[in-house]
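# step 3/5: fold
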Amino acid sequence: MKLAEKKAIFFDLDHTLWDFEKNSALTFETILQKHQVRVNVSEFIKLYIPINLKYWKMFRDGHIGQQELRYKRLKETFDAVGFNVDDELINNLWEDYIELLPTFNHLHDGAVEILEYLSPKYSLHIITNGVQEVGKLKNSEIHHYFETITNSEHAGYKKPDARIFEYALKAANIEKPHGVMVGDCIEADVQGALNCGLDAIYFNENKLAVKEGISQINHLLELKNFL
């Protein structure tokens, strides 16, 4: 990675800057109480996390659509906790979840500090497969750091498809050698960017084993060692 050439940093949002797990847990606590769903919330959230990741991968790979993603990950979690739920309740929960989720504003440790550090030196951008990114950025008060926001809905492609990275580079008016992608998903963010010819840094917060040659950080402030 030729650091002297870099002019732009492309960030993933959920699980990288924006603390999805914490904000999602707070959202579930609120909506389960609102709808008087009597489950152990901690157990529900613990089971939901891996189920959600499984269905996100299926969605990312094009095996299911957005509506299936929303329905199946919630239905499977209720089945796992042994709570009988009808489709109407699932739909009501998801409507409330989608509306409420971006109102929570927890960020990963060091997010604001690293954005403050990087913004005078580089243009900053978002590439995400998620939704409601503008609301999340505004409510967490980091929207002003980013010049462009590319999401899969607008681009027409999801990470790791090279075409979403091409779309983001064009929107940012940045050539590949001058950009670097930072994200938490080794497949979607890192390998997707590398396959496109864009350098990448893996936000490996959980210190998972990765193949040799992958640039990685365990804390956002470690980006200072690269950039």
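# step 4/5: annotate
The mean pLDDT is 94.
# step 5/5: archive (pending)
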